[in-house]
């Protein structure tokens, strides 16, 4: 299909003409969200058959750039050119019609539709230019799906084709998302953090697929922050920081440290925050905690002043374990003892009452009341302590508490009456931590404490965590940021398939060792 | 659809596994539960009172299913897209009364197909308005359609009229009397299967075709499954929203005319309060209230079940006041089975 296109291009023949007109050119794209400049003028050329790695810290603007290329959001300013021709703002269907396919991080599969429909419908939608008053071509849909599924080594039998996608395991869903992307004549496949949920074996399968795509002249754009995988796959690195492209280079020519420097703007400091920990008496003992379908017989104990890290892939059960300790989704078997007392929480209030603070992974949906003032967000768990006369909230004490908390955690804000949504991600996270500190927890469970947080804030948050542990609090960090765990923890537990499979002393641990424990080759679960 | 997996997964000798896979199969095919309930009601009622097994009774149930069925097909399409519509009864009342009045007063000789067309168009316009409001206001469709239901009904009673129409247009009356099939029973009484049951049959086939064989149909389920993802994948939410409500309105318009033709009178106070019963029928047929599922066959079975309970309990001496309780029990039963399905 690539050749057909080249023949029709305005500059036929010759290597020079081909190189002169990239498939996709982005010129000076800008985008703001309510005063925050997410993209400050980004330019990029995508050549056919080339592999790109769009790298950068969370919040550097890479997801925004992807949304603009795939037509999910319009740019405020700048130009998009396909085959040298300006295309204006792309709608999702127009982007698909131009051959831009996106494999989203959440896979974006329709849960209630069959595998065949998920893979094959897009092509028909694009053929109809997004108009819906069209007959469905079932035969074409099935054939398209069979071809695309075979290309990613998935089964093509009728039973599999008619399975609902929400009944399939994560890795299979991801392959289906990739199959959808390559089902039509894709010319650029964007993969948004495609390896997060995959085992080593599945990553290898993915790399094989990418190599085949590349051989067909399809460009592939990875969005990632995993330097090791980028180096393994090879290609060009496009590095973003604070809404700008700061570097573009051949990934093989530069060391991880150099790439990391460009991404963060500072020398990649891998030194440990943890120093001279002082452990107190026994604090927490988790005994054979289980939740059907999530994790089984998890046991560990920790002392006061200790920081324990828990990591694992998305379906390892780590998220469920964190929620079970916090009582959000209670475990169905096992015990949690805090200071010798059985406190196994059945609901979040139990955990709070026992002195367990929980900072959830998704601040926005699980944690913060975004449009409410910072003050209200902080004092929520201790409202009954702030009761004044007639049970009415004592405004002065509430405000004083919030201001102390804001100062303590270095939240950058002129006034605690401002809504939380006026803060940056890092500051929002500090408000959330501040909230749980108001209950003086014995144990603080931090779930992805620096997801979506910039580097400067990370540093502050790490220092806060260390200080809390030094003061005798027990801290559990659940995270897939391995460096974060290595820098902050005393011990790191690795979970796979709902079980704690290994526990490491963090001080002497190498990142490679931890990583290979994390992604240990497991059997691929694809229904036959 | 997944029969193959079912048959393949039944190992011989292991009863427990067989029951387990049968149960899973059942959960994936909710209309089977509905069908089982229908059979159960028929057997119980038919055993107690053998009068149940009369052709005239069957005809009665079919006749009574038409208006409900048309409504239910519309509700199915809206539910599948993740919305809900409670304004269809008001739309039907408005259309049936206004059209009957206009035809009687202005064009008494208008043929039936034209009347149906006008009613369908009128209903579709009201429905499209619902869809537009739901889409542009980004408001929950339950709230929007409660609002439009009140406005439409109030408008009808205030500006159009409150008087009964006893003399309906000739073509409508003739259509209502037209028999597809007559049957003479042993005792000599004659019962007829009215031709307008065909309208429901056609509507069912068309709805099935739209949902299963067109892009808009798949888009309806896609939006019902996850609107955010559907939009990202290029499905036009506006088109889907307007389509589902307009289609429900269109069927409601036709249902209104069917109601007039079978009752031979147009009462503007009719049809009010049927909304929940219809939604219950669709949910009994296996559609999830949260959207993204449901089938035409299940919906029809749900309608038959509800009609059956309303019509035949009287045959076994159960007072009509008990009907609601029995329908209620069925709904809770079906709801439990389907939520087990959701939990996997």
Number of domains of chain A: 2
Mean pLDDT of chain A: 83
Low-confidence stretches of chain B: 1-12
Which structural class is indicated by helix and strand composition of chain A?
alpha/beta
Q: Strand order, biggest sheet of chain A?
A: 6-7-8-3-9-10
Distance between the termini of chain A: 31 Å
- Reading off the top of the CATH hierarchy, the class of chain B is best stated as Mainly Alpha
Q: Helix proportion of residues of chain A, in percent? A: 25-40%
Shape of chain B: globular
β-strand amount of chain B: under 5%
The overall average pLDDT of chain B, rounded, is: 88
Amino-to-carboxy terminus distance of chain B: 18 Å
Percent range for helical residues of chain B? over 70%
CATH topology of chain B: ABC transporter involved in vitamin B12 uptake, BtuC
CATH superfamily name of the largest domain in chain A?
P-loop containing nucleotide triphosphate hydrolases
Question: Class of the largest domain in chain A, according to the CATH hierarchy?
Answer: Alpha Beta
H/E topology pattern of chain B: HHHHHHHHEEHHHHHHH
Unreliable stretches covering 5 or more consecutive residues of chain A: 1-18, 521-528
């Amino acid at each position: 299909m690539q050749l057909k296109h080249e023949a029709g291009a305005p500059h036929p023949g010759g290597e020079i003409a081909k190189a002169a007109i990239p498939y996709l050119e982005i010129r000076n794209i800008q985008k703001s969200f309510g005063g925050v400049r997410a993209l400050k003028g980004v330019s990029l050329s995508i050549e056919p058959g080339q592999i790109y790695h769009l790298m950068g810290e969370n919040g550097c603007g890479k997801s925004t750039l992807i949304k603009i290329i795939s037509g999910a959001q319009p740019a405020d300013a700048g130009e998009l050119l396909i085959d040298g021709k300006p295309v204006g703002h792309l709608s999702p269907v127009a982007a698909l019609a131009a051959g831009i396919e996106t494999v989203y991080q959440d896979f974006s599969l329709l849960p209630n539709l069959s595998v065949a429909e998920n893979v094959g419908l897009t092509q028909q939608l694009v053929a109809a230019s997004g108009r819906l008053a069209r007959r469905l071509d079932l035969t074409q849909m099935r054939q398209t799906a069979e071809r695309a599924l075979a290309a990613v080594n998935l089964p093509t039998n009728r039973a599999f084709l008619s399975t609902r996608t929400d009944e399939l395991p994560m890795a299979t869903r991801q392959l289906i998302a990739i199959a959808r992307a390559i089902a039509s004549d894709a010319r650029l496949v964007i993969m948004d953090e495609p390896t997060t949920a995959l085992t080593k074996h599945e990553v290898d399968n993915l790399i094989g697929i990418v190599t085949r795509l590349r051989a067909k002249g399809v460009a592939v754009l990875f969005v990632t922050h995993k330097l090791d995988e980028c180096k393994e796959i090879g290609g060009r690195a496009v590095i973003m920081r604070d809404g700008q492209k700061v570097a573009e280079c051949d990934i093989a020519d530069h060391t991880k440290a150099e790439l990391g420097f460009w991404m963060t703007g500072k020398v990649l400091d891998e030194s440990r925050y943890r120093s001279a920990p002082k452990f107190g008496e026994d604090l927490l003992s988790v005994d054979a905690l289980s939740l059907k379908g999530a994790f089984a017989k998890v046991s560990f104990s920790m002392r006061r002043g200790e920081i324990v890290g828990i990591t694992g892939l998305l379906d390892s059960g780590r998220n469920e374990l964190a929620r079970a300790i916090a009582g959000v989704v209670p475990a169905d078997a096992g015990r949690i003892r805090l200071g010798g007392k059985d406190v196994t929480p059945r609901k979040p209030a139990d955990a709070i009452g026992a002195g367990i603070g929980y900072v959830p992974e998704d601040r926005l949906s699980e944690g913060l009341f975004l449009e409410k003032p910072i003050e209200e967000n902080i004092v929520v768990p201790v409202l009954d302590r702030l009761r004044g006369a007639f049970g009415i909230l004592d405004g002065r004490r509430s405000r004083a508490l919030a201001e102390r908390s804001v100062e303590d955690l270095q939240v950058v804000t002129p006034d605690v009456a401002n809504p939380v949504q006026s803060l940056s991600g890092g500051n929002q996270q500090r408000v959330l931590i501040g909230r749980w500190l108001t209950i003086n927890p014995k144990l603080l469970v931090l779930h992805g404490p620096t997801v979506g947080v910039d580097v400067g804030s990370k540093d502050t948050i790490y220092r806060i965590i260390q200080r809390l542990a030094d003061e005798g609090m027990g801290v559990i960090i659940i995270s897939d940021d391995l460096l974060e765990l290595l820098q902050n923890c005393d011990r790191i537990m690795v979970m796979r398939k709902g079980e704690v499979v290994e526990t490491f002393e963090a001080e002497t641990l190498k990142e490679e060792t931890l990583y290979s424990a994390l992604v240990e080759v497991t059997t691929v679960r694809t229904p036959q | 659809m997944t029969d193959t997996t079912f048959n393949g997964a039944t190992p011989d000798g292991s009863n427990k596994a067989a029951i387990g896979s049968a149960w899973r199969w059942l959960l994936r095919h909710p209309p089977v539960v509905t069908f089982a309930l229908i059979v159960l009601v028929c057997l119980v009622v038919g055993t107690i009172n053998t009068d149940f097994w009369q052709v005239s009774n069957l005809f009665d149930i079919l006749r009574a299913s038409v208006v409900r069925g048309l409504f239910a097909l519309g509700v199915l399409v809206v539910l599948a897209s993740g919305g809900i519509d409670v304004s269809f009864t008001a739309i039907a009342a408005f259309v049936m009364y206004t059209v009957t009045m206009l035809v009687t007063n202005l064009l008494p000789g208008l043929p039936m197909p034209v009347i149906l067309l006008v009613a369908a168009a009128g209903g579709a316009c009201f429905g499209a308005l619902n869809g537009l409001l739901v889409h542009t206001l980004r408001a929950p469709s339950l709230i929007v359609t409660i609002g439009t239901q009140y406005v439409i009904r109030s408008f009808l009673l205030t500006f159009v009229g409150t008087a009964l129409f006893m003399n309906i247009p000739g073509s409508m009356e003739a259509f209502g009397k037209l028999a597809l099939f007559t049957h003479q029973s042993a005792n000599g009484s004659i019962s007829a299967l009215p031709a307008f049951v065909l309208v429901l049959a056609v509507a069912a086939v068309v709805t099935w075709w739209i949902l299963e064989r067109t892009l808009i149909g798949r888009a309806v389920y896609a939006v019902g499954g996850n609107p955010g993802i559907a939009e990202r994948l290029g499905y036009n939410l506006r088109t889907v929203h307007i389509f589902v409500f307009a289609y429900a309105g269109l069927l409601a318009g036709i249902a209104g005319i069917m109601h007039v033709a079978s009752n031979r009178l147009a009462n503007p106070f009719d049809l009010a309060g049927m909304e929940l019963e219809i939604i219950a029928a669709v949910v009994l047929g296996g559609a999830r209230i949260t959207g993204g599922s449901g089938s035409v066959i299940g919906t029809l079975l749900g309608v038959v079940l509800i009609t059956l309970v309303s019509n035949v309990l009287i045959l076994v001496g159960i007072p009509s006041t008990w009907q609601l309780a029995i329908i209620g029990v069925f709904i809770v039963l079906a709801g439990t089975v389907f939520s087990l399905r959701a939990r996997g």
